[in-house]
TrEMBL record:
The gene is ftsA_1. CDD domains: ASKHA_NBD_PilM. This is Cell division protein FtsA. InterPro entries: ATPase_NBD (IPR043129), FtsA/MreB (IPR050696), PilM (IPR005883), SHS2_FtsA (IPR003494). The keyword Zinc-finger does not apply. It comes from Tepidimonas charontis. Residues 27-195 form the SHS2 domain.
């Protein structure tokens, strides 16, 4: 229904299915992370290339967002207002996302001759059997994947459900910041949409390639293994950029806030930082990502990946791709979601070099403007 072949879809927050024929009006993609908010707004040029109109990051205090839940609503809403002002955009429509852990997804098979209304009723009936709580408490959406490979005359439908309060929290947050929430997506789906452009640049346009996408967050790293735009495996690994921040603070007896700032900027740290702190962290990171891949190999028929893509804030660390490749033995590159896009002249190259890997999910959400 909502762009399934591209591997993305989401809830329209007005009425189910009202995105059919939706014009690509200006749209903000806002990613609500555990320690930062990220915003991206895109346009499409006459030559077909995408252009970055606005992007910005706003930090948040620890504990404002916990496991994807908004614990400090007023503080996060004010941070979102600051983010919009910092970006300098006038656009009000926004796409947000829920963490994958907040959403139940299932594939079902329904008769292919159903019209739109009949399909919606059939999905609701099937969902009632699959979801462990009342449909009255659920925000439900679906998309038709294509003809069923196992049942002639049927189509495969991907169904997603989340508790209404989870969606309402995102909706209320946007409205409190003066925005108009029109789409609620799922973070892993938005990440895959943004990563698709990088995968298509691989050999044979990425066809049949098994790609490991790692999003290195603050406290943990999320793995999605993707083949032909479909996620075939996922796992969280307990390592993130906080570990490096803590190592810097211990090694040089400085507050965590100062350590985080100097880590991000890459300046102001002692000369022995690359050897004494950074490289040991990168080695550990590579080992942990390799361990995550081993879990994938032991639980699936696969025994290798064709490529590793690194994203998230810590993917901008110097030498990270080389360290991961050395530990895993697989070709590795850093995913820049803005690669190949036209960039605004006011965007500082130095700022972009530090921040670009953090914008994966926000870019995927912004790309929803052009999904059909």
């Amino acid at each position: 229904m909502l762009g399934c072949p591209a591997g993305i879809w989401g809830w329209d927050l007005i009425t189910l299915g009202s995105l059919f024929g939706r014009e690509p009006a200006p749209l903000l993609g806002v990613d609500i992370g555990s320690t930062t908010l990220k915003l991206v707004e895109l346009d499409r040029l006459r030559d077909g290339r995408y252009a970055v109109l606005h992007c910005a990051i706003e930090p948040m205090d620890k504990g404002w967002i916990v496991d994807g839940n908004i614990e400090k609503f007023d503080e996060v809403a004010e941070a979102l207002r600051r983010l919009v002002r910092k970006a300098g955009t006038k656009t009000k429509d926004v796409a947000l996302a829920l963490p994958g852990s907040a959403v139940i997804t299932r594939k079902i098979h329904v008769p292919g001759e159903l019209n739109e209304d009949e399909l919606e009723l059939q999905v609701e009936a099937e969902a009632a059997q699959l979801i462990p709580f009342p449909l009255s408490d659920v925000a439900l959406d679906f998309c038709v994947v294509g003809p069923s490979s196992s049942a002639q005359g049927y189509v495969e439908v991907l169904v997603a459900a989340a508790r209404k309060e989870k969606v309402s929290d995102r909706q209320g947050l946007a409205e409190a910041a003066g925005l108009n929430p029109v789409i609620c997506d799922i973070e892993p789906y938005a990440a895959r949409l943004a990563a698709r452009r990088a995968i298509e640049r691989l050999s044979n346009a990425g066809a049949n390639a098994v790609v490991a996408l790692f999003e290195i967050g603050s406290a943990s790293t999320a793995l999605q293994v993707i083949r032909n735009e479909e996620m075939i495996y996922e796992r969280d690994q307990p390592i993130g950029g906080q570990m490096l921040t803590q190592a810097i603070a211990r090694q040089y007896a400085m507050p965590l806030e100062e350590a985080e700032l100097k880590k991000k900027n890459g300046i102001g740290l002692p000369a022995d930082y690359p050897q004494q702190v950074l490289q040991p962290f990168l080695d550990t990171l590579g080992q942990e990502l390799g361990r995550a891949l081993q879990f994938f190999f032991t639980s699936t028929p696969h025994n290798k990946v064709d490529h590793i893509l690194l994203s998230g804030g810590s993917a901008s660390l110097p030498g990270v791709a080389q360290a991961v490749m050395a530990q895993t033995g697989f070709p590795t590159s850093v995913l820049n979601p803005f690669d190949g896009m036209a960039l605004p002249p006011q965007l500082s190259p130095a700022r972009l070099a530090v921040e670009q890997t953090s914008y994966l999910v926000a870019t995927g959400l912004a790309l929803r403007r052009f999904a059909s």
